[in-house]
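TA notes, week 10

Several of you asked for a full example with nothing omitted. So below is the full record: structure tokens for the whole chain, then the designed sequence directly under it. When grading your own attempts, check the secondary structure regions first.
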């Protein structure tokens, strides 16, 4: 079984993965002692020649290995848990790709693959090799228990086929979403087209999933700053959802929440009420991670509208939903509360809140996780704003390095904020390098909001260096991106205060006022 798993087996979780196997840890120690296996980090793995020999001569019928069933059951129970996915991602992908070809397990494992892919997107976005495996599956070979009611409900299609078609389509959509997030747009569009075709083939049972697909694509567009297209998809899906005889109230709530997020990003006021309209349905979902986002976005909307007391109330509501051990959610609320205390002029308290958030993030064992880099970058930029340039650089440099290795829609924040830190430090050449790198990264992953901010920043550097031709070109690029996003040119920075450039950089304002220096 060690030879079958690409990463080997986690030594820390041996007993959990193989419950009931006597002396499993002693067996592993003996293998390592005799150099048949070795410890690679936390994983017990084999030397390549031994692995190849076992795979060729003993793993030809791995499905009959009783230990594989234990591995499958363990990953089945943990396929949507970030800690396990973060550490065992290669193993989980390999096990699920093998398991899904079992006709009896096909539909249920396709569901697991979807959970795994969405969790991977959140914590360690990377390419996967599951698309050809999923496409090769034949829904007609799926074997599930079927009741008479299921048979008549799906007539004229066979219920086994319908179930497999829907799950297969949903899985390809999950692949598409992950690929889009890491900038593999062609691959994403191909998988999305395949998903849509399968769901249409499944008839009315697939059409309800098509609404979910539109919601998912629109959410990715929102994160990327493609707000007008996101708004179109949200409105279209919401219209189709509400016109159904029995509308899915949870999906309807998610669509309304997504639309409110777009409206907030585009600078519209009063969007917190729209966000909170989705709250009752989201509470019924029972997922604290979704609930905390709902409260947080409502708080952010009130913060942007200047309603500090209401924003504080919503951030505290978000914080109450999760425990401190939920590092991403909890530290995000701390950063939001710090922004409020900043605006109230209580800088001592805001520094303390951000220090607490940074301390939490630094307890994350894996610093390559998407949020570890994102959260650290944000807090590093605030440290630079407080005058602690050296500490800011210490934090931002490894975050930028992680971005280069794990590029995604969220990771691009690091290079932008690194540029902001160097602007504060007065090193305009270094800042320009970071902003140009950020633009390249943003183009790779179709991230428009940070690309616009970097173009504006390069324009400001051009003004400082009296290269007005270059400055104008960058400001024009930023202006065009704002137009594409549907965002007012003066409203590019509706989120964290550290995204803003200092007030001394007034070239963007002068450009918008059609100052004489930009007319030549």
């Amino acid at each position: 079984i060690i030879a079958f798993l690409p990463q080997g087996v986690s030594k820390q979780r041996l007993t959990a993965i193989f419950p009931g196997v006597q002396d499993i840890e002693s067996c592993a120690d003996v293998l390592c002692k005799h150099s048949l296996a070795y410890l690679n980090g936390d994983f017990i793995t084999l030397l390549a020649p031994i692995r190849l020999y076992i795979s060729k001569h003993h793993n030809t019928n791995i499905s009959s290995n009783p230990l594989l069933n234990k591995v499958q059951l363990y990953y089945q129970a943990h396929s949507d848990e970030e800690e396990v996915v973060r550490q065992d991602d290669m193993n989980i992908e390999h096990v699920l790709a093998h398991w899904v070809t079992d006709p009896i397990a096909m539909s249920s494992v396709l569901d697991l693959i979807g959970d795994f892919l969405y969790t991977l997107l959140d914590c360690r976005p990377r390419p996967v090799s599951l698309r050809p495996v999923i496409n090769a599956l034949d829904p007609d070979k799926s074997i599930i228990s079927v009741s008479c009611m299921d048979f008549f409900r799906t007539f004229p299609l066979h219920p086994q086929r319908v179930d497999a078609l829907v799950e297969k389509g949903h899985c390809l959509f999950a692949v598409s979403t992950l690929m889009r997030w890491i900038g593999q747009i062609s691959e994403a569009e191909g998988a999305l087209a395949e998903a849509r075709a399968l769901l249409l083939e499944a008839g009315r049972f697939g059409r309800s999933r098509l609404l979910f697909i539109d919601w998912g694509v629109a959410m990715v567009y929102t994160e990327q700053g493609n707000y007008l297209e996101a708004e179109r998809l949200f409105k279209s899906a919401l219209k189709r959802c509400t016109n159904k005889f029995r509308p899915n109230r949870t999906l309807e709530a998610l669509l309304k929440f997504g639309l409110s997020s777009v409206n907030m990003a585009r600078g519209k006021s009063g969007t917190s009420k729209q966000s909170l309209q989705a709250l009752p349905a989201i509470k019924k979902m029972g997922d604290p991670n979704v609930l905390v986002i709902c409260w947080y976005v409502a708080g952010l909307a009130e913060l942007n509208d200047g309603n500090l007391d209401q924003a504080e109330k919503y951030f505290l509501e978000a914080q109450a939903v999760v425990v401190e051990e939920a590092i991403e959610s909890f530290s995000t609320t701390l950063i939001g509360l710090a922004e409020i205390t900043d605006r109230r002029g209580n800088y001592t308290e805001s520094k303390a809140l951000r220090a607490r958030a940074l301390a939490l993030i630094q307890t994350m064992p894996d610093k390559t996780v998407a949020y570890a880099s994102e959260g650290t970058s944000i807090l590093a930029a605030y440290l630079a704003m407080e005058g602690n340039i050296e500490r800011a650089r210490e934090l931002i440099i490894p975050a930028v390095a992680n971005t280069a290795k794990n590029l995604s829609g969220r990771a691009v924040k690091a290079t932008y904020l690194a540029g902001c830190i160097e602007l504060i430090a007065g090193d305009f050449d270094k800042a320009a390098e970071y902003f140009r790198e950020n633009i390249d990264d943003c183009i790779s992953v179709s991230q428009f909001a940070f690309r616009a901010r970097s173009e504006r920043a390069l324009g400001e550097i051009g003004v400082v260096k009296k290269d007005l031709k270059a400055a104008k070109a960058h400001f024009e690029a930023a202006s065009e991106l704002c137009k594409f996003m549907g965002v007012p040119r003066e409203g590019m920075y509706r989120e964290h205060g550290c995204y803003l450039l200092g007030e001394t950089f007034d070239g963007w304002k002068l450009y918008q006022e059609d100052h004489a220096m930009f007319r030549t």
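The chain has 26 helices and three strands. Use that as a sanity check on your answer.
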